[in-house]
């Protein structure tokens, strides 16, 4: 254990994953630990599993160090405002108070896409990029993280833009490709429409595509024609845990970001 090892925990719809992160290298310091998300993913049941993961790594991190925790929701000043793939009882919950009391140590709770984006900005595909960077995660929905000059603008929720009369993620997420049995070419047409619209709104200098489907980037990224370079994320499923740990270690970022 070193002072640069911070625990990150990523709460997802199917699994809750955690690991100590070596912040100097941007990688897990030990193997990650995963526990299935409870069927009724209430704040209390999720907090119980988060506590189990913290206990698993009690000898690997300083017990006074902060814990970064992601949830698939908008998180505003520590409170959860939406609920995607977790129980609706999360809405209105003070997640930082809940986890802090349960763990007895400092915590920072954040949107899962924001955490993944932070990891890519500091250790992955966005590293060293100036200006505006947009990170999107294509999965069940479309998560988004937006950065300017390396600083996070939290909770952007750009997957929920209305596009052609639809919530954009219902047409362009990876789940939509599977649901509608689209070829890579057919799905790329929907992605082109989505990213061109977002690009006209934000004028990013770089677009990063994450989520599990980023492994198959060669099948669709070459079919997209945008002003900004568009690249696949580099950290894969580790991004949420790594980004959670990195953000938790940035006290100034917490004060300024409104996460």
Describe the structure.
The protein is of the alpha/beta class and 259 residues long. It folds into two domains: 5-114 and 238-257, ATPase, nucleotide binding domain (Nucleotidyltransferase, domain 5); 128-234, ATPase, nucleotide binding domain (Nucleotidyltransferase, domain 5, 2-Layer Sandwich). Helix content is 32%, strand content 25%. It has helices at 43-56, 95-103, 112-123, 168-172, 174-179, 184-202, 239-248, 251-257; strands at 5-11, 15-22, 27-28, 33-36, 67-71, 75-76, 79-80, 107-111, 132-138, 142-148, 151-153, 162-163, 166-167, 206-210, 230-232. Helix 1 crosses helix 2 (95-103) and helix 3 (112-123) crosses helix 7. The longest helix is centred in the C-terminal third of the chain and has 19 residues, at 184-202. The two termini are 28 Å apart. The relative contact order is 0.17.
What is this structure, in a nutshell?
This protein is α/β, with parallel strands linked by helices and 259 residues long.
- Average per-residue pLDDT, rounded, comes to 94
- What is the percent of helical residues? 25-40%
- Per the CATH scheme, the topology name of the largest domain is Nucleotidyltransferase, domain 5
Question: How many domain modules?
Answer: 2
Major beta-sheet overview: 6 strands, mixed
**Strand portion, in percent?**
15-25%
Order of helices and strands: EEEEHEEEHEHEEEEEHHHEEHH
Supply the helix-strand structural class.
Answer: alpha/beta
> What is the CATH superfamily of the largest domain?
ATPase, nucleotide binding domain
How many helices does DSSP assign? 8
CATH class wording of the largest domain: Alpha Beta
Distance between the termini: 28 Å
Rg result:
18 Å
Oligomer type? single chain
Q: How many strands?
A: 15
- CATH architecture descriptor of the largest domain: 2-Layer Sandwich
What is the 3D shape?
globular
List low-pLDDT spans: 252-258
